[in-house]
Amino acid sequence: MKTIENFNLKDKKVIIRVDFNVPIKDNRILDDNRIVMSLKTIKFAIDHDAKVILMSHLGRVKEVSDKDKYSLKIVAKRLSELLNKDVIFEGTTRGEKLEKAINNLKPGDILLMENTRFEDLNGKLESGNDDTLGKYWASLGDIFINDAFGTLHRAHASNVGIASNLPSGIGFLVKDEIEKLGSAINSPKRPFGVILGGAKVSDKIGVIENLVKKCDYILIGGGMAYTFLKSQGYNIGKSLLDENSIDFCTNILNNYSEKIILPVDSIVSKELGSDAVLKSNNTFENDDIGLDIGSKTIEKYKEILDKCETIVWNGPLGYSEIDKYSNGTKQILEYLSKKDKIVIIGGGDSASAAINFGYKKSFTHISTGGGASLELLEGKVLPGIEVIEDK
């Protein structure tokens, strides 16, 4: 598959699809990690005299009032600071004003156009991969580079639509994500352990079915653990239950009992945020809610992970947004951060937890894309990659 390095970029209008979907509150960017991760590809393009056109989405744009909240103007300012270079911001997604701004670009210039999701106000043209919109955006450039790993699992006009109509390749961020996740899954240094957390088993069925055949252990945590425990006959009180997945849990445990590892105790509250106590699996009361793995489970999981050379982690082990239910996730992060192992943290909530708890630089790789990394773990082909491979 072609990368940005395979193209002659000099004097070319290069459209780079980046992922600037960053958290913003009170007109302030809370975490600029995704912007920082895009810099290598952007710098390569401007260093090779490309005229750079950046495209990204931000948030979910459902009504006209969302346009003020989800403008990329603030991102353009932060990108200018990080590059120490002016970034032209064009607050439109199509039309004469945008076309004129692009045609006025000189080699080494950078233009960031407005949020691609603004086109969803016209009938979901962006997220629905409208053919006319994809062709129009492609007409603005000479080469397309996809460096937005977080959107590779979606067929949108700003990735699949453009790539279908231009010479295309991937950027350094996407290349790094695919290589590191792919290597960990398909050619791991063994033993190979997987940590799976999050809320619902149904969200991870594909991941479990794919990885259970490839790994040596799957350690279960988060809300999904209680559906597994329920399938084993335990009283889980009012803990999160994915009732439609009970049969799946029963079958996977029957077939892979030596690989699937469940918690033996939990941090329990009567309601979210109230007093938390430690309880073993067989002492839950009917009104208990399991919200984190307990101390014996933490020690058990450390013992298993100590055997592993490659570890892939997707999903927190408890309700880690609330401090009293974050200990399991924190303890395992701290433990792994001190070990000489290949540790890949999937995107989404597990990546946020690793970064927010201070482990941004502690592991082999922290993915920038939750949904995309999840689908890679399932063994799926990502539309944003498939369209480039087909070319």
Quick rundown:
With 391 residues, this protein is an alpha/beta fold.
Structural class: alpha/beta
Level-2 CATH architecture of the largest domain: 3-Layer(aba) Sandwich
Distance between the termini: 9 Å
Q: Overall mean pLDDT score? A: 96
Count of alpha and pi helical runs:
15
Q: Summarize the main sheet.
A: 6 strands, parallel
Structure commentary:
The N and C termini lie close together (9 Å). The longest helix has 15 residues. Helix 1 packs across helix 3 and helix 9 packs across helix 10. Strand 16, helix 13 and strand 17 form a beta-alpha-beta unit. This protein is of the alpha/beta class and 391 residues long. The radius of gyration is 23 Å and the shape is elongated. It folds into two domains: 167 residues, Phosphoglycerate kinase, N-terminal domain (Rossmann fold, 3-Layer(aba) Sandwich); 201 residues, Phosphoglycerate kinase, N-terminal domain (Rossmann fold). The mean pLDDT is 96. The protein has 15 helices and 17 strands. The strands form four sheets. A six-stranded parallel sheet has the order 5-6-4-1-7-8, sandwiched between helices. A six-stranded parallel sheet has the order 11-10-9-15-16-17, sandwiched between helices.
